[in-house]
Amino acid sequence: MHIDKLAIEELRLLVLLYKTHSLKDSAVRLNVSRPTASRMLARLRAAVEDELFIRSASAMTPTHACRRLFPRIERILAEIGDVRRGHVTAPLCT
To answer: What is the pTM of this model?
Structure first.
């Protein structure tokens, strides 16, 4: 797994796609084009070496690996948001 090169926006795409099951809706919420969202998803897939989502006629279904990653990624993004807003509850360094 090579997630050290992933951008925050790519992680946000994973969270949105997990919740919406729609690449189009996720792209709209991120304010990016569908082709850009597709490239972001490709980078995510390469980084974690998993498909992450399986496309069907009606939805994008998360894989087992994606379901395992989702809570951790969501928590990381929440913590980044807290830091940006100045709501740090624990020291970042000791």
So the answer is: 0.82
